[in-house]
Structures are given as structure tokens and as C-alpha cells.
């Protein structure tokens, strides 16, 4: 039995030596899954300074796919630097990529940066399309003026950053986004805006008809506000008591604060209206209210007194609480008027009264010397600098005086009634008796003699 086993062993050795069989070393064996060489380009990527890209590869669950690709091909990885992925990337787009439901888009984006072939920028011809692992194609090109290399739209800033036997890593300036991923991102944003549901209150029942009240028809963007301007103004002295609607209301179609800042800056640059601009800047509540009114869809015409007119204001006129606000309110017309429209009105109608934000006072306008004159008598002002600022929502017209509303004559004139006092007449007999009493010194006893 032992002889047979020994004979069988020598026979196998003879056969193997006859066929020239030799066992391959582990280093010559092809790379299989789980047997990645420590000198692999994939390990180099995970250990390189491209940490943001390496984290995205791990979050996208692409390690298994890349291990298989390294075992089959040489790889070229175009790696954006950390700044391109951390600071220069749109936060909303990055949030979209990291959402669990968008894993496919993240994988497509990362595989778009990997080409299953070794690409040497210095030896590759320009304008050559290279297929990527995402089934897209990338073009390597050269800029004629500076000679810089571009892969797609990204500049090649660090060629051959990592060079390994099974692949190479080239540093690029920014992230490459395939069109399919960008389309997924755009579709997601539009679907979110369409599917947004505005909160609405519970339906109201009309107690008379016991039916649901019909909601008010929606206001079209740019339409005139439904409420009067006085109902939209903030509460204050001599103003309507209704609070102002908050920003972002149903009529919020304009950036009123930006437009108010623009016309104040225009007053400064125009010259001669610095005092008016200073008052609007210092009275921040007034400027805020004007901006809020414009944001809600209202239009305003500001009659701006020049510096010479503002210098004539006395301390008594400005010292009372709320006096500067009341002066400016009387110079703001809740209509959009230009120099041409106001002049045409006064030419046609003679005198025109415009409402002001200082309720209930109105400002009178009439034609004078080929221009428009505002106010009454000595307190009047001429339209001096027409159309300083006109943007369709706010119109600023320069005038050469400060306007004040006519004083209301609330004091009733007191009518003094004079009562005629008639001395009582004495008869002749009484007159003779009083004289006799005077002669004997006894007149003081009778009051009748003293009348």
C-alpha cells in the first residue's frame, strides 16, 4: 500500500514538470474585489488632501464600484479641490446632492469625474472626447492664449497630483456638473415651488344664508391696492388709526425700501436738496413707512423743498413733537404725478386740490408764470426742479418753498351784546322833593334821590 502511494506522488511530479506548470506570485495576480493594493490610486484618493471629494465618494457608496473599476482599468480622476466643494459650491445644490433621495444624482456627478483610462495632459491631443464611468464624455482642450489645459469647463490646475501604477489624479479648479444632474436639480426646485400650499384659514359661514362665504378674488401682481392709502399707513398723530400691513402681504410686489433709498440718494447727487434728504434719513420711521407703502403697491409723489427753502424754517416750527413728520406728510401726495401731468391739469381745470398724507389737508395747485404753483398766498411754492426722480412708483418734484396747510378757523368769534342801560325817569313832584331834601341835608335817607 505504501509503495503505491509513493509511486502515485512521483507520477504527479513528473506530469507537472513535463507540462511546465509554475504558480504565479500574488503581485502578478489580477486585482480582485477586496484585494486592492495599498499603492492603488483609490487608496491614494482616500488619503490625499482632496478630503471633500473623498467624503462624497464614501457618502455616495461608490467604493465597491471604484474597486471593480481599478481591477479592470487604469483610472484618471479629475478631483476638484476642497475650496471648490466647500466654499464655491451653491449651498442649495450641495444640500440637494446630500439628500438620501438624490443618491443617483450624486453618484452620476462623481462618476462624471472618472475616466476608465490613463490620461496624460501633456501627451493627449486637444479636443479629444473621453468616456467617463457615468456614460458621459469629457473633452480635454487647450487655451490658445495662455496654454492652460481645460477638462470640460474646469481648468487643470494641478496635473499629476497623484500618480500610481493603476491610475492618476489631476486637480481641477471647480466641480464638473453633467447636464442630467443639473436638470434633476432644476426639476426638483420647480416641483417644490409648484407643490407649495399656502396656509389658509378655516372656511367661514354666512349666518344669514348659512352658506360658505366666497373668498375675495386674488389680486393680480402689480394691481392697485384695494385699501385706501390712509388705511395702510402706520398709526400716529393725525393719521388713520389702522395699522400698516406687514411686509410680504398680498400686495407685496415691489422693493419699496430700495426705491426709497434710491430717490434719497438721487436727491443728494442732484444737489440743493441735502436738507430734505437728511430729514428722510434721520426720520427712519418715515422712510420705512414710505417704503412699506410702495411695497404694498401704492404710488407717491414727493414735493421736495430745496435747501434755501428749508433754511427758512424757524425753531418754533420744528420744535413741537411730530412737527417734522407732519411737514413731510403735507408734501407727499398719494398719486403718481409728473411735471407734465400736473401742468396739464392746472392748465385745463385752473385749480386742482391734491390729497396729502397729512389727512385731511389738501395742497392746492394752480398755473402761474408757465409753471405750477402750490399753496396759498405768501406761503406758496413754485415747481422749481421738475422730475428729479421718477421710477413709476415714486415721483420727486423739487419746489422752492415749504408748504403749510391753511390754518383752520375753529375759534368762533364771540359776539358781544351791548345792553343799553336807561336811567329811570323821576316825576316833577319827586324832583322838587329831592331838591328840598338836599337843601336841608336829608337826601341820603332816600335812595330814590340818588338815581
TrEMBL record:
<dbReference type="InterPro" id="IPR044654">
    <property type="entry name" value="FLA15/16/17/18"/>
</dbReference>
<keyword id="KW-0964">Secreted</keyword>
<comment type="similarity">
    <text>Belongs to the fasciclin-like AGP family.</text>
</comment>
<feature type="domain" description="FAS1">
    <location>
        <begin position="37"/>
        <end position="176"/>
    </location>
</feature>
<comment type="function">
    <text>May be a cell surface adhesion protein.</text>
</comment>
<dbReference type="GO" id="GO:0005576">
    <property type="term" value="C:extracellular region"/>
</dbReference>
<keyword id="KW-0732">Signal</keyword>
<dbReference type="Pfam" id="PF02469">
    <property type="entry name" value="Fasciclin"/>
</dbReference>
<dbReference type="InterPro" id="IPR036378">
    <property type="entry name" value="FAS1_dom_sf"/>
</dbReference>
<dbReference type="InterPro" id="IPR000782">
    <property type="entry name" value="FAS1_domain"/>
</dbReference>
<protein>
    <submittedName>
        <fullName>FASCICLIN-like arabinogalactan protein 17</fullName>
    </submittedName>
</protein>
<keyword id="KW-0654">Proteoglycan</keyword>
<keyword id="KW-0677">Repeat</keyword>
<feature type="region of interest" description="Disordered">
    <location>
        <begin position="198"/>
        <end position="224"/>
    </location>
</feature>
<feature type="signal peptide">
    <location>
        <begin position="1"/>
        <end position="22"/>
    </location>
</feature>
<keyword id="KW-0325">Glycoprotein</keyword>
<feature type="domain" description="FAS1">
    <location>
        <begin position="260"/>
        <end position="388"/>
    </location>
</feature>
Amino acid at each position: 500500500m505504501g509503495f503505491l502511494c509513493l509511486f502515485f506522488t512521483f507520477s504527479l511530479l513528473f506530469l507537472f514538470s513535463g507540462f511546465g506548470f509554475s504558480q504565479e506570485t500574488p503581485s502578478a495576480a489580477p486585482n480582485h474585489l477586496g484585494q486592492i493594493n495599498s499603492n492603488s490610486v483609490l487608496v491614494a484618493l482616500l488619503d490625499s488632501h482632496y478630503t471633500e471629494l473623498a467624503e462624497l465618494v464614501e457618502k455616495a457608496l461608490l467604493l465597491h464600484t471604484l474597486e471593480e473599476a481599478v481591477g479592470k482599468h487604469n483610472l484618471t480622476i479629475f478631483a476638484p479641490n476642497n475650496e471648490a466643494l466647500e466654499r464655491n459650491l451653491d449651498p442649495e445644490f450641495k444640500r440637494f446632492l446630500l439628500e438620501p433621495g438624490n443618491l443617483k444624482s450624486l453618484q452620476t456627478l462623481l462618476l462624471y469625474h472618472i475616466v476608465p483610462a490613463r490620461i496624460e495632459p501633456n501627451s493627449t491631443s486637444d479636443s479629444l472626447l473621453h468616456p467617463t464611468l457615468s456614460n458621459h464624455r469629457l473633452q480635454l482642450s487647450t487655451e490658445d492664449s495662455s496654454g492652460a489645459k481645460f477638462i470640460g469647463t474646469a481648468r487643470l490646475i494641478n496635473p499629476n497630483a497623484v500618480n500610481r501604477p493603476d491610475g492618476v489624479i489631476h486637480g481641477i479648479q471647480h466641480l464638473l456638473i453633467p447636464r442630467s444632474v443639473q436638470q434633476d436639480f432644476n426639476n426638483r426646485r420647480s416641483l417644490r415651488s409648484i407643490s407649495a400650499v399656502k396656509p389658509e384659514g378655516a372656511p367661514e359661514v354666512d349666518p344669514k344664508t348659512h352658506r360658505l362665504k366666497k373668498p375675495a378674488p386674488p389680486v393680480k401682481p402689480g394691481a392697485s391696492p384695494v385699501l385706501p392709502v390712509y388705511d395702510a399707513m402706520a398709526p400716529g398723530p393725525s393719521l388713520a388709526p389702522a395699522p400698516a400691513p406687514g411686509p410680504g402681504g398680498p400686495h407685496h410686489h415691489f422693493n419699496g425700501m430700495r426705491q426709497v433709498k434710491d430717490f434719497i440718494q438721487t436727491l443728494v447727487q442732484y444737489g440743493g436738496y441735502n436738507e430734505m434728504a437728511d430729514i428722510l434719513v434721520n426720520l427712519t420711521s418715515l422712510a420705512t413707512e414710505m417704503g412699506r407703502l410702495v411695497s404694498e403697491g401704492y404710488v407717491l409723489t414727493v414735493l421736495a423743498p430745496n435747501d434755501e427753502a428749508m433754511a427758512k424754517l424757524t425753531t418754533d416750527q420744528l420744535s413741537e413733537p411730530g412737527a417734522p413728520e407732519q411737514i413731510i406728510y403735507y408734501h407727499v401726495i398719494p398719486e403718481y404725478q409728473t411735471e407734465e401731468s400736473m401742468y396739464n391739469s392746472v392748465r385745463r381745470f385752473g385749480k386742482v386740490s391734491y390729497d396729502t398724507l397729512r389727512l385731511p389737508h389738501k395742497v392746492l395747485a394752480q398755473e402761474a408764470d408757465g409753471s405750477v404753483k402750490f399753496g396759498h398766498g405768501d406761503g406758496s411754492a413754485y415747481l422749481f426742479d421738475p422730475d428729479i426722480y421718477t421710477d413709476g412708483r415714486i415721483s420727486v418734484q423739487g419746489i422752492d418753498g415749504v408748504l403749510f396747510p391753511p390754518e383752520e378757523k375753529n375759534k368762533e368769534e364771540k359776539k358781544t351784546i351791548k345792553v343799553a342801560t336807561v336811567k329811570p325817569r323821576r316825576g316833577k313832584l319827586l324832583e322838587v322833593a329831592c331838591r328840598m331834601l338836599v337843601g336841608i341835608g336829608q337826601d341820603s335817607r332816600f335812595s330814590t334821590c340818588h338815581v
